[in-house]
Design goal:
469 residues, 3-stranded antiparallel beta sheet
Length: 469
């Protein structure tokens, strides 16, 4: 969710690899330890010493030896194949799922990993920061002190990994499912119902972290259809799918861009590579402004040709990534996508949404279109309300969403009706904030990619990383 204004792994599969190597060694040793085979080899050696041409005279002995060699080679090949399969099926925590997910996905993630050990994200080193050499970042991997700090937060890490796996499996399904000709409401309802099943929706303990963004073309963020919206996804649309999941308020904020016409591929690629540059530059003690500079440099190196005109891919300078806190999607720190900005540094055990937006337009967004996104003000103190309808709506918001973002469709799903005046009253009093769609100039195209990262004491974990991006 937008804020306005191959690497080493710590955990390896050594046990599996060693076990398979021992198995192959046993096969090879078996070839030499077998008395019958030894006898045949001695006979062959004796013939060679007596001047017999064993190579040109096919005998039962040589045939048998060839069969043994083929058997060993086949066994090694089979062992390698098993090794590949085992590596493919194992998750980063060292244990795979106990069940296979259905298609479409219906089994909650908690049932796939009943031991509570969910797959790790991609593990990388912290980006070297100004004034801190690369060696210091590398030493974090092996520091026993940092490893001990890691172990202290395993419960939090497992919660966020749980949410990440629900996000991965939901988007994997949706990326294949979404097609031109579908209505935006149809897309959002399918995605949200799938994510709710996988996350095991349970009030404020587990569920969706914010409404599904499906902003099209010049609209960069914060659009989700309200009831009655008949907008249809077109072949020439560039749509940003931005949704979040959470477990006990530990939020995964992750987004990707879909386009069906290949002419937009350079735009999508440029933004994706800029996001990767931002992720690579991030790390403990890294200045936020340095992340922005890395993003801008990569994004502006890309161009896209549309209808015979060349456009440089511009970062949308008034959209940012952001830190994430428990039940708080924007936790106070912003991660720019252009150079300049805050010199504040990233710190251990912080969560960040590294989120970049590229545009063929001006590279600046403004509020436009009907508002659909709302969120209770996290810092707002008690405000007296005179309207009974406002009190009732606030109670409904507190019960179902707390300080997580919501949309009008979700209010109706929770049972609200005739809430327009009450919602406006809550916004006017600052209890709830409205987040209208954010748009660049009409006729341009925008793209977005986003990942949630965790700055562990030992390493940087790209929690939402998947096979897709």
């Amino acid at each position: 969710m937008a804020a306005l204004k191959k690497d080493e792994e710590l955990i390896t599969n050594d046990a599996v690899e060693n076990g398979e190597e021992e198995e192959l060694d046993a096969v090879e040793e078996g070839e030499t330890k077998d008395p019958a085979k030894k006898k045949k080899k001695k006979k062959k050696k004796k013939k060679a010493e007596n001047g017999a041409n064993a190579e040109n005279e096919p005998t039962e002995v040589t045939n048998a030896l060839e069969k043994v060699e083929v058997t060993v080679e086949d066994g090694a090949a089979e062992g390698d194949e098993k090794k590949k399969k085992k590596k493919k099926n194992k998750n980063k925590s060292g244990k795979g799922p106990t069940k296979e997910q259905t298609n479409p996905p219906t089994i909650p993630i908690a049932e796939l990993y009943p031991d509570g050990n969910f797959p790790e994200g991609q593990i990388t080193e912290h980006g070297p920061a100004e004034g801190i050499d690369e060696r210091t970042a590398k030493e974090r991997f092996s520091s026993e002190e940092k490893r001990a700090l890691d172990r202290l937060h395993q419960d939090i890490y497992q919660e966020i990994r749980h949410a990440a796996e629900a996000h991965r499996q939901t988007r994997k399904y949706m990326r294949d499912w979404i097609k031109p000709g579908m209505t935006m409401i149809q897309i959002c309802e399918e995605l949200e119902s799938t994510a709710r099943r996988l996350i095991g929706e349970d009030g404020l303990k587990a569920g969706l972290a914010f409404p599904t963004g499906c902003s099209r073309n010049h609209c960069a963020a914060h659009y989700t259809p309200n009831t009655g919206d008949t907008t249809v996804l077109e072949y020439d649309d560039v749509v940003k799918i931005d949704f979040g999941t959470h477990i006990n308020g530990r939020i995964i904020d992750c987004a990707f861009t879909l386009s069906f016409n290949p002419r937009y591929d350079p735009l999508v690629k440029g933004v994706q590579e800029a996001t990767e540059a931002g992720i690579k530059a991030s790390g403990v003690d890294v200045r936020l402004c340095d992340v922005g500079a890395a993003v801008q440099e990569v994004m502006e190196s890309h161009e896209v040709e549309i209808d015979g005109q060349i456009y440089q891919v511009k970062p949308i300078r008034n959209l940012n990534g952001h830190s994430i806190g428990p039940y708080r999607i924007h936790a106070g720190k912003t991660v720019p996508i252009v150079k300049g900005g805050e010199t504040t540094r990233m710190e251990e055990n912080e969560f960040y949404a590294i989120e970049t937006f590229g545009s063929t337009g001006r590279g600046q967004v403004h509020d436009d279109m009907d508002c659909s996104h709302y969120m209770k003000n996290f810092d707002q103190q008690f405000v007296p309300l005179r309207l009974q309808s406002s009190k009732q709506l606030l109670n409904l918001i507190n019960k179902n969403f707390g300080t997580l973002a919501f949309c009008k469709r979700w209010l109706e799903r929770a049972g609200a009706s005739r809430y327009a005046m009450a919602l406006k009253d809550l916004c006017d009093k600052g209890v709830v904030d409205a987040y209208p769609p954010l748009c660049d100039i009409k006729g341009c195209y925008t793209a977005q990619f986003e990942h949630t990262i965790l700055l562990r004491p030992t390493c940087k974990e790209i929690i939402s990383r998947g096979d897709d991006y």
